């Protein structure tokens, strides 16, 4: 009986719960502090990885939206038949008239086709009206600023200022009457100046005013109202801490064919105009500037009567070009260059030379910005055959890299309205790089190793929600 009791006592004392209950205060404290330590470790872990989870969330949202934007959206517009009939006498005298093309109808302000591509102000994109359309881009619709006025920034470009974490949109202000300087002259608006708009999200834009104004009294000045100022672009010089603007400067007959340079201490100006010149001694019309990752900047311009493009580095202060220059796309008659870089490869979108009329865009690529450049074909996807052959009835002006969304870009283009240039519209569309190019290289007929550039048509689209918070 005694032996049984002893065995039972040993068994009870050896049970873990009983041992804890019978243990010292030191053992209890050790357990409590262990639990506290575990809780603190979990808390610190959650704090450390909170941003990572946010990035993963944004990234997954970006992927889902990107897949949505890369879906091919077809367009089945009805184009009315040509208007009017010719008299029998005219038929005998000149023969049957060739029916107007869709492009002809697009350019004719009295045409029903024209109205399809320049919808009424009632459908304008208005940032002051919050709702289901908030943050959505509608290519071709009138786009209003935060004051409710149409944005005037044609042929423009975007600068992201890291210090203020703000995007600045510079472009031509064409809010004046359209006219022809002479009977065979192109449609024009007197120089008003370069407008600047600011935004945190690339959708809601605040008017910062005219940062470089036209000159009204001095007829010999490059910026006299009778001259031409087109395609202004601004880049920031990290060394001098100044903002430098380059633009196409010309006379009413487009014979001056020069570039102009202006500078400012602030992204919102005012910019001080310095001078104009012909880069490398050649005529220069449509142009752009590109700042590379290493801080070096380059000028790219159409030359030799728009038959080829020239490219060359700028000086360290960005006020001039160096003596180095390369001819690219010789004999291809390309203009409206828009450059961007992705994974070490340089890409460029260009337009054909057809005045105000839209035409087929081409994508080009190079391993070095100085070339050689290869042509990869039409980057436009979706819409319909006519849309793709006319770059969605628009012309390239800039490609915006989206900070916080690596590999994502916005293709910026202008839908020109030569009958009323102030009513020209903006066509912003998603651009991606990926997949095989659809045209062989120019010289060896092989396909390039770099990826295809694709611009996707959408009537209505948006960027991932909250994308700019990761920029």
UniProtKB/TrEMBL annotation:
Superkingdom classification of source: Eukaryota
SUPFAM superfamilies, per database record: Arabinanase/levansucrase/invertase
Species name: Cocos nucifera
Family in the record: Belongs to the glycosyl hydrolase 43 family.
GO molecular function: hydrolase activity, hydrolyzing O-glycosyl compounds
Region listing for Disordered, in residue ranges: 78-99
Alphabetical list of Pfam families matching this protein: Glyco_hydro_43 (PF04616)
GO BP terms, alphabetized: carbohydrate metabolic process
Keywords: Glycosidase, Hydrolase, Membrane, Transmembrane, Transmembrane helix
Listed Basic residues bias regions: 83-97
Protein name: Packaging protein UL52
Transmembrane segments: 30-48
